YbfB/YjiJ family MFS transporter (Georgenia wutianyii), 405 residues
Amino acid sequence: MTVESPAAHSALSPARTRRLTAAGLALIAVSYGLARFSYGLFVPAFRAEFGLDAAAAGAVASASYAAYCLGIVLSTTLTPRWGGRLVAVLAGAVATAGTLTVGLAPSGAVLAVGVVVGGASTGLASPPLAHAVAASVAEERRSRAQAVVNAGTGVGVAVAGPVALAGEQWRAGWLAFAALCAVVTVWAALAVPTSRPERAPLLPRPLLPRGSGRLAAAALLAGAASAATWTFGRDVLVEGGMSVRASTVGWILLGVFGVLGAAAGDLIGRLGLRRTWPVTMLAMAGATALLALVPGTVAVAWPAATAFGAAYIAMTGVLLLWTTRLHPRAPAAGVGLAFLLLALGQSAGAPLVGALAGATDLRVAFAAAAAVAVVGCLTRPGSSAHHAPAVRGQDDRAAAVDDRP
């Protein structure tokens, strides 16, 4: 197995670094914000158009998360062999195909296929972008570049929000998403660099260091707890009596304030991993609970949506640093395993939320998701992860592949 060595090429100039960072942010925005998470924004329209009940909507979301899991495994394998540029282009092409399929879907089954394909694009997009930044960007600019690219999810969610106001014209919106995905794919082909491969291990050694059980439980619980808002967030606002426009604004706020989650690194620097993890999980739990209690009240639901967006992106940042401290010499595979578990939690959580909503109502399901997040805050990092220093140098840079769920 080979990975691309950052030592094989000189660091990008500041101008080329900005081009890579902007293109990476755009690719994450269209894959996560449009091809994957905007499904939850359009669930009310899809349910009306195709006669989907809550359980069916949850099952489609679950399949999308499962496709993400497959995509991350495939991308982690292909990136060292093909290079960051080619896999990034593949991710953009898959996102384009998924959004185009949704826009043209004649039935619920075809809709599901498009959503699943779109979900796969997110797993494909993350490793090549993170690898390109780690391998090509100067060390003093690398952390900031990764943080900016990571913020793409919030940007994409915010962009998708106004399109939902089209109502019955949602197909035109998804066709516009497809066109935007295609443009970003070309951009990635021009901006993402490639480099010469060299031999390095794919899996971390040891595979399961001390503290891995805590990390696995935390990732699974965080994924399950977040699935409610990502799948039924706008649906619960509409069912709570909020207007279409007001609920859409709530979703836009979720995306815009999700960008603030990029400050997770600064928060960790102040509080440490052991304190930051429960803070982000409790914030996500509180936001989810507020959406369950008063979904139709703008003065409460909008702040709750903003809190969820910031907490979710910050939570993924904490999870990223946590796993790189457990695997300081092989962060690539360690992060891949952690975010695979996060996606598996979302894949399991979405249909469970849908089933519970079908048996009771969405507010009860959201309350249950909030309870799961509270439990998740208890699985905080142990002292070994808190104190383990990150290894700098070639081992770290060559393998640094992160993910952005």
